[in-house]
Amino acid sequence: MDKVALFGASGVIGQSVAQALQAQGRAYRVVGRSKASLQREFGADPLAEVATWNPDDADSIRAAARGIHTLIYMVGVNYWQFHLHPQLMRRTLDAAIAEGVQQVLLIGTVYPYGRPRTTPVTEDHPREPHTFKGRMRKEQEDLLLAEHAAGRIRGTILRLPDFYGPGVDKSFLYRPFLAAAQGKRAQLIGPIDAPHEFIYVPDVGPVVTALMDEPRAYGRWWNLAGAGVTSQRELVKEIFAQAGRPPKFTTFGKGMVRLMGLFDPFMKELVEMHYLLTEPVLMDDSALRGLLGTVRKTPYSEGIRQTLAATRAAAVSPAPAATARPRPAP
Domain NAD-dependent epimerase/dehydratase, which positions (predicted)? Predict the structure, then answer.
């Protein structure tokens, strides 16, 4: 089979895609900055080839893409460095095209849609981001779509909502899982009663591999909705209930987030994205389901059960407030 490279493999989405490829018996290359980290996460899989890269070095990027048919792009940046997204995409596309990579699948976000005009949001919704982060993500997408239109490489985009799951510490739900497992009070960013959706991370990998193998997928973007519309409050209640404890939490509003941003660069940047909690982008993925036929989504109750078990087993230490963010793969 044609070889696949996972750029940004160390993240939770990369690990989910790797697991899906492993289940299919397909060889793949994991690409990241730290060889030690990649070896620790993927070294036990004989199907995995470890490759490091320096995204500031064109030759390094070309070496990481050499001999690859499909490139899955999941490269993250610090929340306060979103200006790097289009820069890194430009360098990666140049290297991929030079090395003869046939296709690129970008893991995208809801940011480029901007404020939702409809509920739910389909792929026909305008991309009119009103935030800097949304504009940077749109610019990143436009670079890929332009190369596809020019016939230099095939490109497609899979948009994800917020996510959660075992090992996912950059999620609105991470602190509730940790607090419920340890019998403590959770800190939430509100409002927590607004409609919201989450995807269980292990469900993403099979969708990615199915999409990349579908020739009709290229030249556009696709929505992957969560496992249903819910709210932070409802999920937190379920998390604590499964832990056998009454829910205990404190909610921080936008004003407190802004105040915390005086001392925390992540929280400072989160302020402009707070609209996603008051004007949520709830996606319609009927087009994706029509294309692939089957898109499995773990029910929230089962995803919570598995994540809570993993949280307890890992005995994870509390993360700083900066780990809470509105999107998975920024």
Answer: 6-222
Listed residue (31, 12, 45) closest to 96, CA to CA: 31
H, E, C per residue of 133-186? HHHHHHHHHHHHHHHHHCCCCEEEEEECCEEECCCCCCCCCHHHHHHHHHCCCE
Q: What does the block give as tokens for 135?
A: 């504009």
Q: What is the pLDDT of residues 47-102, one digit of tens each?
A: 999 999 999 999 999 999 999 999 999 999 999 999 999 999 999 999 999 999 99
Residues 155 and 257 in one domain: no
CA distances to 101, 156, 178, 257 from 30, in Å = 15, 20, 29, 36
Distances (CA, A) of 100 to 110, 116, 205, 230: 30, 38, 24, 43
What is the residue whose two structure tokens read 């790097």? 84
Written as one letter, the residue type at 171 is S
Percent of the chain residues topping a pLDDT of 70: 95
Average pLDDT, the chain: 93
Give the C-alpha separation, 82 to 150, whole Å.
26
Residue span of the structural domain in which 260 resides: 165-197+228-278+298-323
Could you tell me if residue 292 is inside a domain? no
d(CA 219, CA 173): 33
For 231-276, write each residue's pLDDT tens digit: 999 999 999 999 999 999 999 999 999 998 899 988 999 999 999 9
- Helix (H) or strand (E) holding 300, with range, is helix 300-314
Q: Does the global pTM surpass 0.85?
A: yes
> Residues 154, 264: one domain?
no
